[in-house]
Write a structure and sequence with these properties.
single chain, Immunoglobulin-like, Maltoporin, Chain A, 5 helices, 6% helix
Length: 720
């Protein structure tokens, strides 16, 4: 299929016509405006600006009265006759006074505070693309992205690796709140966020994100949820393999034009029939039809808009219950969030976030009728974050200050009737202060309006009560050159990062009983350090006419060096052995996209090649990943999404029943995901039917990769 398109590229590039292009900015902040509407008043030609505020239009001819019109909610409409418009021009929109609708302005400013950072390889996926893909599974959205590897599925959650990192080295933010806390292994489970709830998903690869990437050696995923603009409701049911039953729903209610309440919830139960709980993943799996798992999460959100800002109050719960004969595990999480985005005392661009997290995990093992092993840990975490952005001419300054408190109680005992043998009674706490600043300088040549560049300098400082303090600098540069239908964007960056082991990781290295609070700073694990560098470029060719909209090609080379890494049982953070040495991960990633082929097809090919120097530190990392995706969207609501992927060989290790280290090589394999759906508009609701098949070739086997077994699913959704 790719060969066919390469043969016809010369024909695709011969499209004739008149091309109009420019860049749209906020007149006050001088920031580019994303998704502004751009169209011609005398024709049906139109588009929206991209993430850099840029647009391109192509028409066969221009009338004498044709005008270019640009509109964006919260701004005065811009209108100019094409005869007066300078091609590749810069357009500045003036903000207008709004009562309700200011949330659009506030959200745009909030996103810029959080996202603008050292230049990375960045992939942005907005709700339009999510709706085009048409899938209810986040795997379908992320698998075609180069260097992204998804662990697990609906059974065990969906966790992300980036460029050969571990899942706990990827920070995932939901509207500015870190979600990694919601799992015991400090990795984020993306399955708790339905794709129907996502407005924008941004993937920043590499470990040099100064504002968001503390400890994120692999990268950062930044998710913005959709904010309702009207009262509505959504419900979906799914059923599938492993006797899986799944129900989710959402309701939005507007009390006033500036006050809304939203609720989202999902409940999932299944019978995997195969051992998969942590500690049971490292050898041939055992069939056990008596295993049951129930997972549920709920999210209530209150949005209140004022003339100067937006208040968000949110409460999130997440529960995971695991049952099998002689084993029970109950995991509870509660996250409370209060945030404000907007102006304070007349000063613009503030982002204030306060959140508290409480979790409780109870494990009970019952080897006989009365004797049982009991392990309970509880955590309390408080996080306060303040961000501020300044603009002065062509210079942007972003400042961030953060306070983080964490405490953990961990106790284990063997109990029987009239008998209690306490094995462990531990209490840990820590406090951390952080500050960060990012300076960015942009410029362009007056004689070359199609050439611009931006340089960045970031610095972050962290200090923890356990005695460590670190300074992490980063810097980078990005060039943007546009010439006719071509756009070229090379970039490079380098930086340092630090990850402080969690209290849970510290707790499981202890081998003493009755630890008191005064001893909580003793014998802590040392921080892990990371140095990372990358360089790459992106090339886009816009045809803006059938049979192809554009061709997008990118390539990146990266290297990551990690020090003081923890050797743990892969995937399972409960058993920690020792902190040693260093690892170097080198890699190359590339992607090629054909967008709007014959207006209906989207084709993506991507590949990543990894060289991991120490597989003990980074096990289960395939030496290569290749994927080919095809997405089709019909005019009447039918959509098809398929992804073929190949994973090269990788290395694994585990401790056998005799407590001896064993290593193994996991063979290469390939498989395929397919989903077919259709949207059916009814009188007052829209229905959507979707059939999905994951790993449908079933080529991975049970060993190590049980969660990549064939998984089939059918769903029905109704939206009001």
């Amino acid at each position: 299929m790719l060969s066919w398109f390469f043969c016809f590229i010369p024909l695709l590039l011969q499209a004739q016509g008149i091309q109009i292009e420019g860049t749209v900015y906020d007149s006050k902040t001088k920031e580019p405006l994303k998704e502004a509407d751009v169209f011609l008043n005398k024709s049906t030609v139109g588009t929206v600006t991209d993430s850099q505020g840029k647009f391109r239009l192509k028409v066969n001819q221009i009338g004498e009265t044709d005008s270019l019109i640009i509109s964006f909610l919260g701004y005065q409409t811009y209108r100019i006759k094409l005869s007066r418009f300078s091609d590749k021009g810069r357009i500045f929109l003036e903000p207008s006074s709004l009562e309700f609708g200011d949330e659009i302005l506030i959200r745009a400013e909030r996103d810029q505070i959080l996202k603008q950072d050292i230049p990375h390889s960045v992939t942005s996926i907005d709700f339009r693309e999510i709706e085009r893909i048409g899938s209810s599974e986040i795997t379908d959205i992320l698998k075609p992205v180069p260097s992204i590897r998804v662990e697990g599925n609906d059974l065990d959650g969906r966790r992300i690796q980036i460029r050969g990192s571990n899942a706990n080295e990827v920070n995932v933010y939901l509207d500015g709140v870190l979600l990694n806390n919601l799992r015991f292994d400090n990795s984020a489970d993306l399955s708790i966020i339905p794709v129907e709830y996502i407005e924008d998903l941004e993937i920043l690869k590499g470990g040099n994100s100064t504002l968001l990437g503390n400890g994120a050696f692999g990268g950062v995923i930044n998710i913005s949820t959709r904010q309702p603009d009207k009262t509505g409701a959504f419900i979906k049911g799914k059923t599938g393999t492993f006797n899986s039953r799944y129900l989710l729903g959402n309701i939005d209610v507007f009390i006033k034009n500036n006050l809304s309440i939203s609720y989202f919830g999902q409940y999932h139960e299944f019978e995997p029939a195969i051992e998969y709980f942590p500690g049971e993943r490292y050898s041939e799996k055992t069939v056990n039809s008596q295993i049951t798992t129930r997972r549920q999460n709920h999210m209530a959100t209150l949005n209140y808009f004022t003339g100067s800002g937006q208040f968000i109050s949110r409460f999130i719960t997440y529960f995971n219950d695991y049952r099998k004969p002689f084993w029970e595990s109950d995991y509870e999480n509660y996250l409370s969030v209060l945030s404000y985005k907007g102006d304070i005392l007349g000063l613009k661009n503030f982002d204030v976030n306060i959140n508290h997290f409480y979790s409780k995990n109870l494990i009970r093992r019952v080897p006989d009728g009365t004797l049982f092993y009991r392990n309970l840990f509880k955590t309390n975490r408080l996080n306060v974050n303040l961000a501020k952005k300044f603009q002065y001419r062509a210079t942007d300054i972003q400042l961030m200050a953060e306070y983080f408190h964490d405490d953990l109680k961990n106790n284990a005992s063997i109990e029987d009737v009239g008998f209690n043998n306490k094995l462990t009674d531990e209490f840990f706490y820590d406090n951390k202060l952080s500050g960060a600043a990012v300076f960015s300088f942009s410029d362009f040549l007056k004689g070359m309006p199609n050439l611009s560049w931006k340089t960045y300098l970031g610095i972050r400082g962290d200090a923890v009560a356990s005695g460590h303090s670190d300074i992490s600098p980063s810097f980078g540069a990005k060039l943007n050159y546009r010439n006719g239908p071509w756009e070229l964007s090379p970039y490079l960056n380098y930086g340092k990062n630090v990850r402080y082991p969690t209290l849970l990781e510290n707790a499981y290295i202890r081998n003493i009983s009755n630890l008191s609070g005064s001893d909580t700073l003793a014998n802590r694990l040392d921080p892990e350090y990371n140095n990372a560098a990358e360089t790459g470029f992106n090339v886009v060719y816009y045809t803006l006419s059938p049979p192809l909209h554009n061709i997008d090609f990118s390539i990146e080379i990266f290297q990551r060096t990690s020090f003081n890494k923890l050797i743990t049982r892969p995937v399972d953070e409960e058993l920690i052995y020792v902190q040693i040495g260093r690892n170097i991960t080198r890699g190359l990633e590339t992607s090629l996209k054909f967008n709007e082929v014959l207006k209906r097809f989207y084709i993506t090919a991507s590949a990543v090649f990894l060289d991991v120097s120490d597989p003990l530190l980074y096990a289960y990392k395939p030496e290569k990943n290749i994927s080919l995706g095809l997405n089709f969207l019909s005019a009447f609501g039918l959509h098809l999404n398929s992804t073929f992927f190949y994973e090269g060989k990788s290395n694994a290790w585990y401790i056998d029943t005799d407590n001896v280290l064993q290593t193994d090589e996991i063979e290469e394999y390939y498989d395929m995901d397919v989903s077919v759906g259709c949207k059916i508009p009814l009188k007052i609701v829209e229905a959507e039917l979707l059939f999905s098949g994951y790993n449908i070739l079933d080529n991975s086997g049970f060993k190590y990769y049980y969660l990549k077994k064939k998984y089939l699913q059918f769903s029905l959704a109704l939206r009001y």
